[in-house]
Design a protein that fits this description.
The structure holds two protein chains of two kinds.
Chain A: H1 3-14, H2 20-30, H3 34-53, H4 62-74, E1 78-81, H5 104-107, H6 110-120, H7 126-144, E2 151-152, H8 156-163, E3 183-191, E4 194-203, E5 206-214, E6 224-228, E7 231-238, E8 241-247, H9 251-263
Antiparallel strand pairs in A: 1-6, 2-3, 3-4, 4-5, 5-8, 6-7, 7-8
Helix pairs in contact in A: 1-3
Chain B: H1 13-24, H2 28-38, H3 42-59, H4 67-84, H5 109-113, H6 118-128, H7 131-142, H8 147-154, H9 158-180
Helix pairs in contact in B: 2-3, 2-4, 2-7, 3-4, 4-8, 6-9, 7-9, 8-9
Classes of the chains: A alpha+beta, B mainly alpha.
Chain lengths: 264, 181
C-alpha cells in the first residue's frame, strides 16, 4: 500500500471499517510517515470535535409535543373543524385545523379526547363517529388487501356506468386529473348496513377513498373534518348523496380535494 | 404504496402508543441530530421529527426488531420524512465524487477546537457541506451508524458510503482551513 492509498483509507480506519490486514498495514505505514501521522491525528481531532460540538440537545418540550401529537392522532375520531369552507372559491389552505387548541392537547389520551369532543361539541352526532370508524376501517382494509378497485379506469364514463345494476343509485363520478387528483377506479363497499360506492382517487402517492351513498335527509350539514390515527376524513353532502373522503393526505389538501369534487 | 400495518383496534391505541414510545424515545436524540442537520433551521427540524414520529407510529405494527434495531429504522424514516417534505427541495449540490481525497492535512483541528468560538465555527463549516455529505457525517459521528446501516437507509453501495465519508471529512477540513486563514 503506497502513501496515497493509505491517505485515502484513513477515514475508513477512523470508522473501524477496514479489514484487519489493511488496518495493520496502515499502522505500519503510520510509524514511518510523518505526513500520514499528522493527517491521522488531524482526522481523529476532527472526529472528536464533531462529536463534541455538532450535537444539540433535544429541544425542551419536544418529547411532550410528540407525545401529544400522537395522542391526538390516535384518539377516537375527533371532529377537528366544524364548518369546512362551504363555498369552493375559498382557499382551503387558510383553514388551519383547530386541533392545536391549548388545553385540548394538554389532556391528550384517548379518553380525554373522546370526552372533550362530547363536552365541546355536544351536537356532534354519535352517528358521525360511528360512520367515521367504519369509513376509516374500510379505507385501511382496502389498502391492506390491495383491493382498491373492481373497475380500474381513469375514465369517469367507464366508472360511473359500472355501478349501474350493482347499486340502487348512481354515484357522482368526476375526474380531477387536471387538478392533480386523478380518478383511478371504483369498487363496491359496505357501510351503514348498505352497499355503497367507493371511488378511488390518487394524489401523488396518497390514495383517497370516497364513499358515497344516498342521503336520508335533505338537510345539508356543513362539511366536517375528522381525524383518526393519522388519517383525515372529510364528510359532506352533494347531489343528494352522503360523501366521505378518507386519506393520509394532509388536511388542507384533502379539503381542497373535497371542494373540487363539490364544484362539479 | 409503502406496505404498512396500522395498529388495529382504536381501543388499543393508548397501549400501542406506550409500546411505540418505549421503542422510539431512546433514539430521539439521534433523530433530532439528523433532522437538525438536514433541515435548515430548528423549526423545520421539529416538523420533520413530528412527521417522522407519526409515520413511525403508523408503520410500527410492521416493525419487529429490538430497541437497538429501531435506531436505524427510525433514522431512515426521519430521512425520508425530510426528503419528502417541502423543506428538502433538493438543493442541486454538485458532489465531486471523482477527484482525489488527498488534501492538505497540515492544519490542526485540535487547536481550532480549543478556540472560544469553536462550536460556531464548526457549525458554520458543516452548513457549507453539501447535504449528501453532511448527512453521512451526522449518521456516522452523531448517530453512530455503521457503514452497513447507512448503506441500507440511503440505498447507496457501502463503497460509496465509505468514499462519501472520506470526502465529507476532507471537504470539512478544507472549509475549516479556509475560514481560519
Amino acid at each position: 500500500m503506497n502513501h496515497d492509498q493509505v491517505q485515502a483509507r484513513l477515514s475508513a480506519m477512523l470508522d473501524h471499517a477496514l479489514p484487519a490486514a489493511e488496518a495493520a498495514e496502515i499502522t505500519l505505514h503510520l510509524a514511518t510517515c510523518a505526513e500520514c501521522q499528522h493527517a491521522w491525528a488531524a482526522q481523529q481531532a476532527l472526529q472528536t470535535w464533531i462529536k463534541r460540538d455538532a450535537v444539540q440537545a433535544v429541544p425542551a418540550g419536544l418529547v411532550q409535543q410528540l407525545s401529544q401529537h400522537l395522542a391526538q392522532q390516535t384518539a377516537a375520531p375527533v371532529l377537528i373543524a366544524a364548518p369546512a369552507p362551504a363555498t369552493v372559491s375559498e382557499k382551503p389552505t387558510r383553514t388551519r385545523p383547530l386541533w392545536l387548541w391549548p388545553g385540548f392537547a394538554g389532556l391528550g389520551g384517548v379518553l380525554a379526547g373522546g370526552l372533550l369532543t362530547l363536552l365541546l361539541l355536544p351536537r356532534a352526532p354519535e352517528a358521525q363517529t360511528q360512520i367515521a370508524q367504519e369509513v376509516f376501517a374500510s379505507h385501511i382494509r382496502a389498502l391492506q388487501a390491495g383491493h382498491l378497485s373492481d373497475v380500474v379506469s381513469t375514465d369517469q364514463h367507464t366508472v360511473k356506468p359500472w355501478f349501474a345494476g350493482k347499486l340502487d343509485f348512481s354515484p357522482p363520478v368526476h375526474d380531477l386529473a387536471a387538478e392533480g387528483f386523478p380518478l383511478i377506479g371504483g369498487r363496491l363497499d359496505y357501510l351503514q348496513q348498505r352497499p355503497v360506492a367507493a371511488l378511488v382517487y390518487r394524489h401523488q402517492l396518497h390514495v383517497i377513498n370516497v364513499f358515497v351513498w344516498p342521503a336520508s335527509t335533505t338537510h345539508q350539514p356543513a362539511p366536517r373534518l375528522l381525524q383518526q390515527q393519522g388519517y383525515q376524513m372529510v364528510a359532506w353532502q352533494q347531489e343528494g348523496m352522503n360523501c366521505w373522503a378518507v386519506s393520509d393526505l394532509n388536511t388542507p389538501e384533502l379539503q381542497k380535494f373535497a371542494s373540487l369534487l363539490q364544484q362539479h | 404504496m409503502k406496505p404498512f400495518m396500522p395498529p388495529s383496534a382504536p381501543f388499543n391505541a393508548a397501549e400501542q402508543t406506550a409500546r411505540f414510545e418505549q421503542l422510539a424515545l431512546p433514539h430521539l436524540h439521534s433523530a433530532w441530530q439528523l433532522a437538525r442537520w438536514l433541515a435548515r433551521n430548528d423549526a423545520q427540524a421539529q416538523e420533520v421529527v413530528q412527521e417522522a414520529w407519526l409515520r413511525a407510529w403508523r408503520y410500527f405494527g410492521g416493525f419487529s426488531g429490538t430497541v437497538e434495531d429501531a435506531r436505524a429504522w427510525l433514522l431512515a424514516i426521519v430521512r425520508n420524512a425530510f426528503y419528502d417534505s417541502l423543506a428538502a427541495q433538493r438543493p442541486n449540490d454538485v458532489l465531486d465524487e471523482e477527484g482525489s481525497e488527498a488534501i492538505d492535512w497540515t492544519f490542526n483541528p485540535e487547536q481550532l477546537a480549543e478556540r472560544a468560538d469553536a462550536k460556531r465555527m464548526l457549525e458554520a463549516a458543516l452548513r457549507l457541506l453539501p447535504v449528501a455529505y453532511r448527512e453521512m457525517l451526522v449518521l456516522r459521528e452523531l448517530a453512530g451508524c455503521s457503514y452497513e446501516e447507512i448503506a441500507n437507509m440511503t440505498g447507496l453501495p457501502p463503497g460509496t458510503v465509505m468514499s462519501r465519508l472520506a470526502r465529507a471529512r476532507a471537504q470539512l477540513a478544507q472549509i475549516l482551513q479556509g475560514t481560519t486563514r
